[in-house]
């Protein structure tokens, strides 16, 4: 969230008596309230972010960094961690998990959901990895993707499917582990490891809520939220806790991002079915060429599935104005100079751009299935070409370079053409590629 022109974590000061200052304290708080999103959302106070020290986030110190604590809590297994709240990360206590599972699953184990034609084939290919004798598996996200067939020319929208299965409580994050090379040494960022909640706590316990009507489980969640957050509106509670969007036949058929944006562009022969990681990366860069207000509209409309009215309230604009921003944004995304990024692909367009600048393109061949990592050119997070050129002139080329630069307070003052608002947006984009 941009506040006073800067990216700000909305937490507490370390001196505040209410500030949670250790992983043990956060776990105790989650067990007390029952469930809690990781980051700030529409309901004030309903997040780990708002109860922890703002200055400690992303420090890398496991003693005081809440970002590191989520790893420790996932490892301990006393609470479940995953994307449980409006497709965003958070925690559910062991006590409350059967309540969520009963509502979100509508009383279905996954195999029964499949038999009743309530699950898609892509979800089934993922869940088949955890069925029967494989039920105790713990798999890296890249292993799930590979084994379930989400490869080049294979199944699409892995991120959307893995998020859906977490929202439905069929999968949780068990740990964040780094890759290990042939010499046995760890390298890179921690990668999410997925397992079933039944692996954590046993099927009998996880499914114990099946004894009651899923509607009663939904009522328990809603009433608990209304008691803890009496100022929250019905719409806010339903949205953040997922009561409106999940659970058997009640689930809305919403096309996930970026498939919905691809369809909205209406470009011949450019369909969600052909999207590769290379084309997705190019689409991120293309969106980065829009004006900031247009980027916000695209993000809220397609990633968050908000209406023009909802976006207008947040941006303090009329719904009609939001519609105009949206139309202009789609128009610019169709410009040949912009659309080349997602039509020709990220790698080819980046190499052409660097060649025109007289710069050497990366020596290593680009892996079109690779997710964003620290060694990628920083434009891949969605910078505008003008911003990228500024950074190149200062020999800031990779995401790792940019992450190091932005740690300094007021860093943007050394980069002509980048002001405080642009700096805040760049920092937001950097955070968005951090593994969740």
Structure report:
- The structure is a single chain.
- Among the domains are: 108-206, Arc Repressor Mutant, subunit A (Orthogonal Bundle), CATH 1.10.10; 254-343, Arc Repressor Mutant, subunit A; 371-436, DNA polymerase, domain 1.
- The two termini are 18 Å apart.
- It is built from 21 helices and eight strands.
- The relative contact order is 0.09.
- A three-stranded antiparallel sheet has the order 3-5-4.
- A hairpin with a 2-residue loop joins strand 1 and strand 2.
- The protein is mainly alpha-helical and 436 residues long.
- The longest helix has 15 residues, at 214-228.
- It is globular.
Task: Name the descriptors.
436 residues, single chain, globular, mainly alpha, three-stranded antiparallel sheet, DNA polymerase, domain 1, Arc Repressor Mutant, subunit A, 9% strand, 21 helices
SSE pattern: EEHEHEEHHHEHHEEHHHHHHHHHHHHHH
Q: Which descriptor suits the 3D outline?
A: globular
Number of helices, where a helix is a run of at least 4 consecutive DSSP H or I residues: 21
Assign the CATH class of the domain at 108-206.
Mainly Alpha
Query: Could you give the distance between the termini?
Result: 18 Å
Largest sheet: 3 strands, antiparallel
- Widest sheet: strand order? 3-5-4
Question: Can you give the helix content as a percent range?
Answer: 40-55%
Any idea what the radius of gyration is?
A: 22 Å
Query: What percentage of the residues does DSSP assign to strands (E)?
Result: 5-15%
